[in-house]
Description:
By secondary structure, the protein is α+β, with helices and mostly antiparallel strands.
Amino acid sequence: MTIKLTLNGRPVTAQIEDGMTLYEFVRSRGCCSVKCGCETSNCGLCTVFLNDLPVLSCSVLAARADGCRVDTLEGLQEEAEEFGAFIADQGAEQCGFCNPGMVMNAIALFRENPSPTDEEIKEYLAGNLCRCSGYEGQLRGIHAFMEYKKGGAGA
């Protein structure tokens, strides 16, 4: 099957195999930030944006992306770098394996709700598995980032 989509702002036309996941497709196109930690839609490591909505690429067929826009962390470097520094500052990236999925979901959260409550933050990041931390560093990083965006002390 031939699909046409926009991957990180660039038009792509590709021949794909039946059953190819979006995860396999973006990895084959050099998007190494997208990782597969479980293959069961439980860890969040494979999060990408499909038409600006976060999806778990290990559970979406590449064929569903035909005619769509797909963004990975490689295509969101400015947003990711700005926010990622706050996560790193809080020591929340011990091994770094979960960071791409965590950052993708945080970007989605901030796009939808620039001033989320703690409960909303926890709900949005609930699907991200991190084996190194207790998520408190991520939460502190998100709060510091929100302060920075407001022009407060976290800047």
